[in-house]
Design a protein that fits this description.
single chain, mainly alpha, 23 helices, three-stranded antiparallel beta sheet, 562 residues
Amino acid sequence: MSTPSYLSRDRHGAYVFRITIPKSLRPLFAGKLCIRKSLTTYNRREAARLAIALAAEYLNGFEMLVENKEIKAVKESLKKIEGQMFRNGSRLKAKRVIKDELFEKLVARLRSACPEAGIAQIEQTVKNEDLDIVLEVLADLTGDSELANHFDREISKLNKEIKELELTESILQHNYSEARLVRQDDARSPNLNSISSTNESVFLSKPITQIVETYLEHKRGNNAKLGRGVVNGLDHSIKDFIFICGDLKANEVTPEIARTFRDDLLRMPKYRSKGELKGCTKNDLLSKSWDESQLLTPTTVAERLRYITEMFKWLVRVYGLARNPFIELKVASAARGYNVFSIVDLNHLYASELYSPDSTYFQSKRTNASYWWLCLVAMYTGARAGELNQLELKRDIKSENGIHYFHLQEDSVSVKSKAAFRRVPIHSKLIEIGILEYFEKLKKAGMKRVFEGFALRDVASKSMSAYFQRYRERNFPAWIGDKKVLHSFRTTFINQVLHGKSKIATHHLQEVVGHEPSQLKSTSDYVRGAPIERLKEVVEAVTFDGLDIDHLKGGWKALMFK
């Protein structure tokens, strides 16, 4: 592919922006023929994006100088932006009113179904605005899970629309501020040599809350499929930084401030915006002594720092920030260490109330077939919860050479890494229990996803993980201290293959579970694309000797479409 116009390379290989000055304007630039500016990047795609933006800026400046239209253009731009801000603000206000009314309807419906003795508890739950708990209680009290799902869908839709309008509002405010800065200086002719440096200086003096919106626009421009997990991760990181350090300007953040942020974050409790901790100040939280289990994990803190570090790298590269204050920060991270399920654990699980047709839990209107299949599919595939919850019947259930498999494709699911796009054969034990028949019944009923019983939110794994956590607390509280969670099924699957009787090549196991080559100590010449028969051998190596689940055959049928 040819190099885009305005781009060249310097002797070190970095891209340089170059634009020719119109002949009539050269006297204003000391006779120069062109303007050159280093883009400080070796990435062609990034350089092309920056060059296009700079070219538009300089060409517009040339035109203003030639035709003397700068003042008029700025005034028209301000007027246009003001109109856009008014219309966007009206829509945002209307959406917030609709959300408040919908939430009031939800609360009214919940209180009407609640026994008198539980009203105080319900009011406290609503006050804390924990939507998941509110919807769960509503479904339990009314026996109508569809009503709860209706409220969930409507509120989630409104939250998404409000988030988009708030983003638009922030961008418009940024554009309006830029236009006003130009208008204040409109009596003078623009010096095009200083256009970029002036904008960079102004941008770096903005608060981080304004900078982050521009950064997200940059990320979306380079990645049309930017996942909600990335957006939410950056949002949590910025909120934590502002809570601890304040909404500082980007050029005010020093390495000392960055270290303070890291050290204080390691002393912060989880869920500081919920329950009794809601409304506490930074000093309130730091003054208390917390158990290690109550604190944010080193892994979470490292993740927060990673998001902020990447944003400041972008500021250094694109806007000329002097240095990245977060670049050398490290967090001593402890391994997450999810424990595996023993055969005794699994036998107890599949003898518990979810798998006992005579139990009140099984017969509850809220219990559905998705709940019933979750642990079994996770155990025999090693897939992540977020991957399972996004599986669709027509798109992701396939067959090759008589082998049925889940096809996790780039267009199918939002996954952790590129290695997670893969084929996972369906274990013979799942087929024996009746999973293929389950798929057919879902298709005939017009269902789209394999696990329709779980809500699919911004974080795909959230509803599944929350359900398993509640079931664990209800039936197996000892597992909490043992660190046995839904993700432990994945750890158990990998351990079964690694320590089983069958000798499975490590890179084939990697392909099935979606690990990067660096994980599980793979060789450097690792290549994907093993035949489906070879992947089937990996899955079938999971045998769970001593596990008795023969009684589960067809047990899911009583839970279909309750």
